[in-house]
Amino acid sequence: MIHAPSWRVLATSLFLVVGAGQATAKDVPASRGPGQAAIASANFLATNAGFEVLAKGGNAFDAAVAVSSTLAVVEQQSSGIGGGFMALLHKASDGRNVFIDARETAPKAVDMKVYVGKDGKPNRDVSTNGPLSAGIPGEPAGLAWMAEHYGKLPLSASLAPAIRIAKEGFQPDARFIGTIEDRKDVLARYPASAAIYLPDGRVPAQGWTLRQPDLATTLERLAVKGADGFYKGETATLLVSASRVAGGNWTAADLEAYRVKEREPLTVDYKGYRIVTAPPPSSGGVAIAEVLNILSGFDLTKLDLAHSTHLTIEAMRRAFRDHNEYLGDPDFVKMPLDMLLSKYYADGLRATISPDKATPSDLLPTAMSADPGMHTTHFSVIDADGNMVASTLTVNLEFGSGFVAKGTGVVLNDEMDDFALVPGQPNAFGLRGALANAPEPGKRMLSSMSPSFVFGADRTAVIGSPGGSTIITQVLEGILAFIDGKSASQITAQKRYHHQYLPDRVDVEAGAFDEATAKTLTDMGHVLKNRSPWGFMNVVTWDHRTNALDAATDPRRPSGLGKVGTVKSVP
Ligand code: DON
After folding, report:
1. What residues contact 356, with CB distance under 8 A and at least 6 apart?
2. List of residues 6+ apart from 499 with CB closer than 8 A
3. Which residue's alpha carbon is nearest to atom 2 within ligand 1?
4. Which ligand 1 atom sits nearest the alpha carbon of residue 417?
5. Is pTM beyond 0.70 here?
6. What torsion do the CA atoms of 400, 83, 394, 407 make, to the nearest 10 degrees?
7. What ligand 1 atom has the least distance to the C-alpha of 535?
8. Fewest CB within a 10 Å sphere: which of 26, 37, 145, 255?
9. What is the pLDDT along the chain (571 residues), one digit of tens a residue?
10. Whose alpha carbon is nearest atom 5 of ligand 1?
């Protein structure tokens, strides 16, 4: 068990974290930087782009712009400038933590009826494929915002690697080509998508070079004009006309109205660590905080694996119940956050947990299921000065809507499916929302994205993952592993499990539990179900005792790409 320092000690030690209701930035001493930088992303070209920009004098925020925009070129199945992101920034100079909400918004003409089939069930084709599934993108505005407010370099410098790779081309890896295979029927529906991803009408073979001149031009307009280069002018005109020709409902006004939001991150203290994480419109931070608050009343280290896992599953079950019920876009709905985040509320929930018996979810008042894939992406950065970025980016499902707006090279997201389009009915991740997450013009759809920092007296972690609803539990388990003293590669390799209230079952990665533990859990009433795949976690850690950085990417991904989580000394 790691020694738990008091917050007074932590506050006067080498760094300090500021969250909601905490000391102001002015009270915070500057931290000593690690003197080198670490980046863990899902693709080596993106990681290299981050280091390229650091070498040009950029900071972690410039590197984050470079990594994000390069992922938008080389890992388009997961994120892109037709999508959105949520990022947590830590400024070493004043200790401030900031949450950048570049989540997509519903267009003004959003009409819930189009997402309901004749049988009253969600029409998954409309909500996940084609232009009606796309929210107004947030990523371009978010990148411009980050460069302008936090970076040291002009946006054009940080976008340069992505533009170069889009022009010169790159060889997509097996994962990229596999997702084209998965989505080929939808990609084939739209000529501009087929022209890029299905050359000669077929899924390309490995060794194929993908050059994207339209995407390079779109990124250049963003580089030169900032957000206006995407949300106004030529790119905006192309996006709106392509969307409308294909049956979409976007207008120029929707694009012009898009705004990035800076929000106060959520903060939760657990066993001497401070976790800084995503606020709504992500549900992740609230759920992670609830689970940690519940678990703080137990000493998990005194329990065997079956019993500590049982309590964690029970905490997950209760946190996900609240997720369905209460959470949505804070600019549109009032949420009982004070209650959900309070220790007293957690005390009440803890009291309903039996030490050795599963609580059937339908015994808890009200409601959620899912299949995480390899889409959506997370990267973590720490620079030599100690600035940090945890950023999770998404177009939702693989290649988002599958729809490329002609002339832009931009794949539009299918984030509309993250709204509760048909109340009480599951979305693609089995999440069943309520009115709080119903679509409305300009509203942000609820997300599970949970970019997080974990601050301890001795060590700090930057952590996050894709995985739909399992993002929350994967990040939670990563946080617990870090607090248990695990290294970056142990955290990313650790076997995972997940419970989301409904369906009432524990999704388990092969090898997570030995036979005896699985039997004990089953005897307690838990239904265990094997599940695969599990996210793509990218973690960077900083040990303040030695000042060493460590970076690791998820070993589950057969990338053949070499080491994508790297630590480098940057001059
Ligand atoms: O924002 C969200 O919660 C989802 N759009 C994330 C999708 C995702 O992680 C897909 N990957 N497995």
Report:
1. 307, 310, 524
2. 313, 316, 317, 320, 473, 505, 506, 507
3. 447
4. 5
5. yes
6. 50
7. 12
8. 26
9. 222 232 222 222 222 222 223 332 333 334 589 999 999 999 999 999 999 999 999 999 999 999 999 999 999 999 999 999 999 999 999 999 999 999 999 999 999 999 999 998 899 999 999 999 999 999 999 999 999 999 999 999 999 999 999 999 999 999 899 999 999 999 999 999 999 999 999 999 999 999 999 999 999 999 999 999 999 999 999 999 999 999 999 999 999 999 999 999 999 999 999 999 999 999 999 999 999 999 999 999 999 999 999 999 999 999 998 877 789 999 999 999 999 999 999 999 999 999 999 999 988 865 433 444 557 999 999 999 999 999 999 999 999 999 999 999 999 999 999 999 988 888 888 787 778 999 999 999 999 999 999 999 999 999 999 999 999 999 999 999 999 999 999 999 999 999 999 899 999 999 999 999 999 999 999 999 999 888 899 999 999 999 999 999 998 875 545 467 788 776 5
10. 396
- Ligand 1 geometric centre to CA of 449 (Å): 7
The amino acid that residue 370 corresponds to is: A
Ligand 1 pocket check: which of 471, 496, 556 to mutate, most ligand atoms within 8 Å of Cβ? 471
Q: Are 390 and 380 in contact (CB under 8 A)?
A: yes
Q: And the tokens for 237?
A: 């005109």
Q: Are 483 and 2 in contact (CB under 8 A)?
A: yes
561 Cβ contact list (under 8 Å, min separation 6): 43, 44, 173
Tell me how far apart the alpha carbons of residues 259 and 346 are, in angstroms, rounded to a whole number: 35
Ligand 1 centre and the CA of 468: distance in Å? 4
Q: Which atom of ligand 1 is nearest to the CA of 448?
A: 3
Catalytic residue among 128, 309, 376, 460: 376
User: What is the Cα 440 distance to its own chain's centre?
Assistant: 23
Q: What CA–CA distance (Å, rounded) separates 50 from 537? A: 18
Pairing of strands 528-530, 273-277: unpaired
Which of helix, strand or coil describes residue 228? helix
Taking CA atoms only, the protein residue closest to ligand 1 atom 8 is 468
Pocket of ligand 1 (CB under 6 A): 372-373, 375-376, 394, 396, 415, 418, 447-449, 466-468, 471
Active-site residue 376, yes or no? yes
Nearest CA to ligand 1 atom 1: 447
Residue 113 neighbours by CB under 8 Å, 6+ apart: none
Determine which helix (DSSP H) or strand (DSSP E) holds 322, and give its type and residue range.
Answer: helix 305-326
Classify 143 in phi/psi space as left (phi over 0), alpha (psi -120 to 50) or beta.
alpha
Q: What is the 193 CA–ligand 1 centroid distance (Å)?
A: 21
Residue 395 CA to ligand 1 centre (angstroms): 8
| 3-state secondary structure at position 109 | coil
Place of tokens 């794949």: 411
Measured CA to CA, the distance from residue 247 to residue 236 in angstroms comes to 17
Render 164-201 in DSSP notation, one character per residue: HHHHH-B---HHHHHHHHHHHHHHHHSHHHHHHHSGGG
